[in-house]
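[09:14] KT: can someone run the structure on this one? pasting the chain below
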Amino acid sequence: MYQHFFQLKQDPFSIAPDPRYLFMSERHREALAHLLYGIGSGGGFVLLTGEIGAGKTTVCRCFIEQVPENCRLAYIFNPKLTVEELLLTVCDEFHIALPPAGPSPFGVKGYVDAINRYLLEAHAQGLNNVLVIDEAQNLAPEVLEQLRLLTNLETSERKLLQIILIGQPELRSMLARPELEQLAQRVIARYHLGPLSEQETGAYIAHRLAVAGAVGAPIPSALTPQIHRLTQGVPRRINLLCDRALLGAYVENSPQVTRRILQKSAQEVFAGEAPAPRPAAHWPMLAGGLLAGAALSAAAAWQMLPQPEVNPAVAAAPPARAVPVKTSSPAAVAVPVQESEHDALRALAALWGEPLAGGQPCEAALRLNLRCHQGRGGLYELRLLDRPAVVTLHEGPRTGYAVLVGMDAASVTLEADGKRERVDLATFINRFGGEFTTFWRVPRAFRDQVAEGDRGPDVDWLATSLATLNKADSPGADQPFDARTREWLRAFQAAQNLKADGVAGPRTYMRLNQLSGVPEPHLLAAAGKTP
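[09:31] RB: done, structure tokens below
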């Protein structure tokens, strides 16, 4: 009704999941990263929960679009099923052929045997199988138990079925029941999709209006705090409120939504309800309980001695280059971007105090005991890694690069072509696709990954470090990576929000570096120094 009045091509705030209006906030990117991680994790459960209207379906649709070619996916959207109905639905979704019905009932065993045969055949072909169950809070306890039993289907190398449960917050309470403890122990990753922040709420509204072809600002940005307070940052509530507010402005022949119109619209849409206040989001802790009060010696790390001296002091990061930072208002600052990714990587290496020669930056960095690490996961991963990075920025068909040198709760500091600017999070998130490249410092003798059965100087250092954390005797030199060390490593990774697979890779070394005093620049510390 109001589309012609505001010169809009479509309804910008329809609650239908139109992919043209997809807005991936930082939280949605984090949730998507957890689901994508679950594909290659080797079995078990991945749990995604969120409030009604928080965008779980949006994340699920993005996940389905990004499933790799070697992955077969089954999707169940109505889980109010009996055990046999669930197993039959799994067979239907995976297109598992069942034998013709005989004189006796097929039964649970028949379904499970058919699923097991299918999974073994798929594994032999190098295929992964993922079962996604939406609205999983509606699963009956006996059905959840049957799902747990399905994850017992395995080879000597890995489990054959990955199950992703998506549901409302009560799903977490269900899995906390004593009778479901065994299932809860098999959850390898979990994420609760919270509401949008105030900055993200503004970016969300601006994004949807822009896609609908809005001219000007029918919903002024000055109303963002009020909209966020009224909706608590829940996307569906934002859509309902903004839709009604635009209608109200049309009825009153107002070119913009006003505070009075917005408040009246909220009373009509929410019928006077007052949503419960949500606790403020907290920054992820960089040190887990396992490492509290314990830091590894940087000298021992690099000299790879069998008996490292533990130094509780963590060395300070080297100072960043003295590049002046402009102090203009974040909202008024353009996002700095440069065309050359290689130049951005050279600027990044300078923060490590290592100027790179010409040629390929990552190859040149290897000669200086620096290695490139490319990742995707958005601000969540960058905060956990706590190190500057080259980020890929998008604007329409154009792609550019900038060095992310600092981050705080409301803004980031970006550098491009030697100039630094502070940019508010909402603006940055709209341009950031989640791709980044950073460096990590490592001796040349270290391998990219260390797993059970390996031996060498990197294994000696890793085993000694973990033994020190666990207050155990250090193993001798040139000992193989054994089962005990692997369990220590898994516990360390779990405490640090890393993939607890018992394989030491770049992210494990990065976290150990941060806590051992290895001189490296920090992302979050740098943000605190930005004026």
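[09:33] KT: thanks! The first helix runs from residue 26 to 39.
[09:34] RB: yep, looked fine to me
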